[in-house]
Amino acid sequence: MVLDMKFLPLILRNALRNRRRTILTILSISxxxxxxxxxxxxxxxxxxxPLTADSATxxxxxxxxxxxxxxxxxxxxxxxxxxxVKEVSAYQWVGGIYKDPANFFAQFAVDADRIFDIYxxxxxxxxxxxxxxMKERTAALAGxxxxxxxxxxxxxRITLQGTFFPRDIxxxxxxxxxxxxxxxxxxxxxxxxxxxxxxFNGASTFAIKARSTEEIPAVIDTxxxxxxxxxxxxxxxxxxxxxxxxMSMWGNVRTLVVSVSTVLxxxxxxxxxxxxxMSIRERTGEIAILRTLGFSxxxxxxxxxxxxxxxxxxxxxxxxxxARYLFxxxxxxxxTMGFLQVLDVTWGTxxxxxxxxxxxxxxxxxxxxxxxxxxxxxxxMRRRGE
Length: 386
Description:
- The protein is of the alpha+beta class.
- The chain has two domains: 5-49 and 252-382, no CATH class; 65-232, no CATH class.
- Helices cover 52% and strands 16% of the residues.
- It is built from 15 helices and twelve strands.
- It has helices at residues 8-15, 19-47, 74-80, 115-118, 127-135, 144-150, 190-196, 216-226, 239-248, 253-282, 284-292, 297-329, 332-335, 347-373, 377-382; strands spanning 58-63, 71-72, 85-93, 106-110, 123-124, 139-143, 157-160, 169-178, 185-189, 202-203, 205-210, 234-238.
- A hairpin with an 8-residue loop joins β7 and β8.
- α2 (19-47) crosses α12, α10 runs parallel beside α14 and α12 packs antiparallel against α14.
- The relative contact order is 0.18.
């Protein structure tokens, strides 16, 4: 039954009659919906990584078995000669330690003279910095956020302790890069790293620039079929597929998020049900008076559910909108070292939070409200204060 708007002041007064209880209930719901909104947004960020328009023409090739296996560096020149390939660069994970193992950040050895033809969305701050990177074997380019984090300036010498190979890597910061998700990574030269590692002549990944998006399927098929029978067969995929495959190594994140969200929702229902049952029990006598004044059981039931809905919606929207505007002000790219560049709590997520709030309101209130609204007036008066 739809209530007339004239009952709204009564609903508001009853919802706020015990302000401490109402505020605590709103806060408990808001914290739970904040977590649910955050988990959903993180899941969306992991399943739909923020890729640039330029990434649509890139292919990443790795060993068919795993990223831990390397491929011969000779593959690089063979791939470069294949139809549809515009450019290719080695893309080797370094894994060095800067001062302390806790100082973790992405480090890649690349072909200095080719990498910016492939990653045109990564930009050095000045042309001379790019030229210095191509000229000096020990040169390194640092992301602007990474440089700010460690206080690096142009000309600073840094040392990365070797992990894969027991050789320290001495580098000179020659410039800084930004855009394309490069703010928290360090680029060094592959030829210098290869020399330090005793000419191991391998690469964990090859970054390929296709001439067009239409030629990507043919490039992938050509690369993988060429090396299918070799000692190091390859697996090539688009940059988006590569990133999603890397994320899948974390396990079934979707199932984890859904499970945690379900537990949170069930917990909210229990908390809200206890609160609403306590509130309705305290007001049994008032409900009897309302019935005496002519309020039907349907009116009483609708009013009680409306009060609960008002409280639950306030908490749900507070949590979801709080998450949206809080994350918008945070530099997550720097805080997560590039793992999460941005968390955009969408309006769809906010509507979902509102829907969960409505479910919580109805599920927590319907049974005690139904029972109270159906009590005989004499029985309700006798149970007053119980």
